[in-house]
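Input chain follows. Return structure tokens only.
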Amino acid sequence: MAARPETSNARVAVQTKGDAMEVSLGGTWQITEPRPSWDEIRGVENPARVRLHVDDVGKWDSSMLLFLFGAQQWCRVTGAYCDTEALPEKVQLLLNQLSTSHETSVPFDRSENFLITVGLATQDVWVKGKAISHFVGECVLSAVRLVRNPAKFRWRDCLVEMQQCGAMSLPIVSLISFLVGVTLAYTGALVLRQYGGDIYVADLIGLAMVREMGAMMTGVVLAGRTGAAFAATLGNMKANEEIDALETLGIPAVNFLVLPRLLALGVMMPLLALYANALGILGGMAVARGLLSISPTAYMVEMQTIVSMGDVMVGVIKAVTFGLIVGLAGCLRGLQAERSAAGVGQAATSAVVTAILFIIVSDAIFAVVFNIVGL
């Protein structure tokens, strides 16, 4: 018989016989006094059979039942046999009642099957899509009210946002666009030089920048710069209950906060895209002059033979759409942000991810639609 010394009157003696464990309780068990636990008594042993009995127990209360219940539950989880035949009849009755009332405490397989996972994902997509549709609808209604009554629009706020998302974005847009043009020119030169078509690098750069890369790269840059700023600003206003104050005064947040930002991006985005086109073409021209010995005049003449006004309009249409997407994503995530500092950060991250995702999806849709209509 190996006894485990305890500092209280509650005692537990353990004796191991092969794969069986004899657990004997003794002493006085009080819930207000220190007492042993089943995990301490069991240690590292994993018996296949546990026999519980009570020897020389004086006063006892629910603390003894909790010890016995812990041993019984461990046996149920591990598959060991728990023998309670030696326990007093009253203790067995109370232990059975405790086990019945805590049947859900036994761990069970909570993993979700494929159908449940698909169903929950579908439900989540439906809820998020509904929220986005509702927000876009509010923005459309607000734009209609702006057209009907432009005097109530805060043009000063719109001009400030135009400066922030337009003029302040010129340095980063210039750098990114120029380097994209350089990269495309080097990549195209690797193939074209093998067939003696060096001059066609101008066609490659012109079409790629005007139709795709100018609007795309500008949209991505503004998604990380302006979209995140919109989300952080509105999220911080929500955390400080400024948006609640506006709603209390009867001022819709969409009219006061969202619409000026959307209009600013919708106006400045195509201008930035055209500027990005020019910088990208300039970067390709620099590579063509230095690597392929193509003069700037020949480069521009060749590019004008392939790039038409329709190609420019394709890029402008995409730029306007991308600008609205960035503004909608930033404002939506900002209004949905939690009222905490962590919520503001999460809103900014979510705004960038959402904007870039919808930019890529819309660009793919535009590619299919323009191919069908012949643009």
